[in-house]
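Lab notes, practical 5.
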Amino acid sequence: MIEIGRLPNSRAAQAFVDYLKGEHIDCQIEPQMQGVAILVVHDKDIERARKEFAHFIAHPYDSKYLQASWEHGDTHTKLDYGAPSLQLFTQFITGAGPITLIIFALCSIIFAAMNLGFANQTYEALSYFGAVPNADFSQFWRVFTPSLLHFSAMHIIFNLLWWWYLGGKIETRIGTAPLLILLLVAGTLPNIVQYYVSGPNFGGLSGVVYAVAGYTWVMGIRKPAAGIGLPPSYMGFMLIWLVLGFTDVLGISVANGAHIGGLIIGLAQGLFDSRKVTH
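Output from the prediction step:
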């Protein structure tokens, strides 16, 4: 048997497998540490199954999958999804990889510290070069750590939701290495750009978020078999938000330099990786 891809939960996996059965493709699901693997039994069905998988990723709510569950699903099989809260937690964990979850946790802990009486100490330790006294270039981590700082609930919620959703897709379906490269490059170079645009007082993961958005969008267009993609409406929203950052409409200070820098990095890496990723 050959794995053709993974889905974040058993419900989605079972719906897809039921559809493949209707197409006379012998397959099964297998729970993994990260999501549920789709396994195809016969080599002759691999290519067709991969094409169907790519379509399912792009159109998971297509009515044909629901119809397939009614026609080909095993009515004797009862999947135990547990309590709703447990199911939500399981989906959160299986929908992401270790890098995605570590950065999610770090940003959350740092934000909590900044709102529990340690704002000055946290900012002094993690802000960009020149933001506080004695923050010199020997403290190399400062080129990256501003990406972990967030200054409002809306700021961190917006960034972490996109990070989990898009970063988790990249890590679970393509691998940890591409996401780690995006994180390190888009978490540093856009900070340098932002420094020269507005000075050292900035923070947030949004440069990285725009990088994973650009990467996911390009991969979805150029390499749909990789199993990730960003609907045009979502990408349109991100671009509108980017443009609004240059106006006073949002009423907040926006790191436009980091956003543009991150987007360019994500698009560039997506173009590069889409030439070599095979599934």
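Observations recorded by the TA: The beta strands are 2-7, 27-31, 36-40. The first strand starts at residue 2 and ends at 7.
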